[in-house]
Amino acid sequence: MTPGWVMPAFDAHAALVAPWTEHRDTFGWVGVMGFSVAAACGLIGNYLLLRRMALMGDAVSHSVLPGLVLAFLVSGGRGTGAMFAGALVAGLVATLVIDLLQSRTPLKQDAAIGIVFSTLFAIGVVLAVAFAGQIDLDPDCVLNGELLFVALEPPVTWGSWTLAPPAVIRMAVVLAVVLAVIVGGYRALLVSSFDPGIARSAGVNVRGVRLGLMLLLSLVVVSAFEAVGAVLVVAMLILPGATATLITERLPRMHGLAVVHAAVSVWLGVGLAVWLDCSLAPAIVVAGALLFGVAWLLGPRGGLLVQLWARGRVRS
C-alpha cells in the first residue's frame, strides 16, 4: 500500500508547459489575472516597504468584510458590482480613519492600523453572524479567493470582438492606473518615501501623497481579493518588494524586479497547483516565497552567502 503522505510524481511538461499550451483556454486568463494582481500588488508594495507601512495592506484587506456583508444585504445578492463597491467603500473608510487617527491623535501608525483593521473585521464578523440567514458568503473564498473562477466567467464582448472576463479587465485597468500613478507622480512618491523632510522643503504635499497612495492601495487590494483572497493579498504586497530589496536599492530596478517576480511566481505557482492539485492563489504565494528564499540566499544585498563570504574575508 502506498503511504498517504507520498507526493505525486512531478511531470515538468504537465506542470510547467501544458497549462499554457494544451490548457490555455483555462489557464490563459488565470495567468493574466494572476500576473495583473501580483504586479499591481508588487509595485505599490515597494512603496509600502520603503515607508515601513507593510501592515497597511493587512489592514485594508481585513477591513473589506463589513463592506461585503452590507453590500449583500443592500443588493440582496452577490452581484460583482455591488460587492466590489461595498468592499471598496470599506477599504477607503479604513484608509481615511487610519490617516485621521495618525494625524490628529498621539497614536503611532501601528496602533492606528491595529485599532481600525481589528475593529472593522470584528464588525464584519458580527454582521455576518447576525444576518447569517440572509447572506450567502463563502468565508473561504473571502479569505483565500479562487483564481480558477476567473476562467469560468463569460468574457465581455464588444461588437464582434470577444475580449476578456470582467474580473481580468477590471484588474488590468487597476494595474494600468498603478503604472500611470507611478510614472506621473514618480518624483513626489520617491522623495516623500525616502525623506519626508526634504520632500516638504521641496514643496511636496507629503500627507496628500501618503493619502493618495493609501487610496490607491485600497483600490488594488479590493480588486485583487476576489482572486487571491483578503489574506493572501498581503503576501503579494510584501514578497516582491522584499525580494527586490535583497537584490537592489534603486527604485526603478525594484519596480522591474517586482514585475519579473509577479510573472515567475504565477508561472511556478500554477505549475505547483497543477502538480499538487491544490488552490492556485496559495500556490502562487508559495512560489513567490521560494523566489524570496533564493534572493535571501544569493542576493547581493544581505544574501546569506554574501554575508558568509564577507565574514570569511574579514577573518582572513
Radius of gyration: 21 Å
- Got a strand count? 2
CATH superfamily: ABC transporter involved in vitamin B12 uptake, BtuC
What spatial order of strands do you see in the largest sheet?
1-2
Average pLDDT, all residues:
82
Query: Terminal Cα separation, in Å?
Result: 55 Å
Helix-and-strand structural type: mainly alpha
CATH class: Mainly Alpha
CATH topology: ABC transporter involved in vitamin B12 uptake, BtuC
Question: What is the second-level CATH architecture?
Answer: Orthogonal Bundle
Q: Provide the domain count.
A: 1
How would a textbook summarize the main sheet? 2 strands, antiparallel
Number of helices, counting only DSSP H or I runs of 4 residues or more = 13
Approximate shape: globular
Which percent band covers the strand fraction?
under 5%
Task: List segments where confidence is low: pLDDT < 50 over at least 5 consecutive residues.
Answer: none
Order of helices and strands: HHHHHHEEHHHHHHH
Helix content: over 70%
Short characterization:
With 316 residues, the protein is mostly helical.
Keywords:
ABC transporter involved in vitamin B12 uptake, BtuC, mainly alpha, 1% strand, 2 strands, 316 residues
